[in-house]
Amino acid sequence: MSTPLSSIQVVVPVYYCDESLYLPIMHCLASLEGYDVILVDDCSPLDHDFPITIQNSPNLGYTSTVNAGLKIATADVIVVCNDDIVMTKECMERFQDLPDGVIASPMDTSSSDDELFGAVFGMRRSVYEEIGGLDENFKHFFSDTEYIQRAKNRGIEIIKWYDITLDHPESSTYKLLDKKTLLEEDRKVWERSIR
After folding, report:
1. Pairing between strand 120-124 and 102-108?
2. Is residue 138 within 8 Å of residue 146, measured between CB atoms?
3. What structural domains and CATH numbers belong to the chain?
4. Global pTM?
5. What's the CA gap between 137 and 56, in Å, rounded?
6. For residue 4, with 0-12 CB atoms within 10 Å meaning exposed, 13-18 middle and 19 or more buried, which class applies?
7. Which residue spans within 64-152 are E strands per DSSP?
8. How many CB atoms lie within 10 A of CB 89?
9. Contacts of 172 (CB under 8 A, 6+ apart)
């Protein structure tokens, strides 16, 4: 049974730190027109006119920003989408038909990993209520890896839709930040967590 469009909310974390990000963010938002979007601004350093739902202060990082949106989402289906992804109608329709007990994501052009889903993923509210939000010990990376493990431990199925690929220009925002340092900081957290 399909979920009505009104019963889907899309959490979009945004960090506007360079004017080159304006068009990718606007394209993302345009692709979500007609859906209830929860736009969480992670204390962007540049002024903008995006329709913000939540304003972080100070900057909290990707994981906490996603969680802020998840906490206020009330829809039957919750989708998380990076601010530089152009969502397709086909993908949103697939999320409408998402069964319970599943976390699903399409392929994206920045990752070949079969399970990782940090850029776009969706789940029923009941799944979120069972396993909670992302682990905020990770600021930017590995939170999806940990989430997958936690979900599997509770019997949640992880599904990758190989027939849907969304263009993800390998995180436009992280191209402007010190991604290597951010990645290494979260890698240390991950290594400590699996000991």
Report:
1. antiparallel
2. yes
3. 5-193 (3.90.550.10)
4. 0.85
5. 17
6. exposed
7. 77-81, 102-108, 120-124
8. 9
9. 20, 21, 24, 84
3 state DSSP class of 104: strand
Element (H, E) at 116: none
Helix pair angle (143-153, 179-193), 10° resolution: 30
Q: What is the dihedral of CA 99, 77, 183, 47, to 10 degrees?
A: 160
Contact between 182 and 141 under an 8 Å Cβ cutoff? The reply is yes
Residue-wise pLDDT for 52-108, tens only, equals 999 999 999 889 999 999 999 999 999 999 999 999 999 999 999 999 999 999 987
Burial class (CB in 10 A: 0-12, 13-18, 19+), 26: middle
Average pLDDT over residues 24-33: 94
DSSP helix/strand/coil, 84: coil
| Cα dihedral 35, 40, 45, 50 in deg (nearest 10) | 20
What pLDDT, in 10s, does the model give residues 106-132? Answer: 987 766 555 667 689 999 999 999 999
CA distance 125 to 43: 27
Task: Find out whether 119 and 47 touch, Cβ atoms under 8 Å.
Answer: no
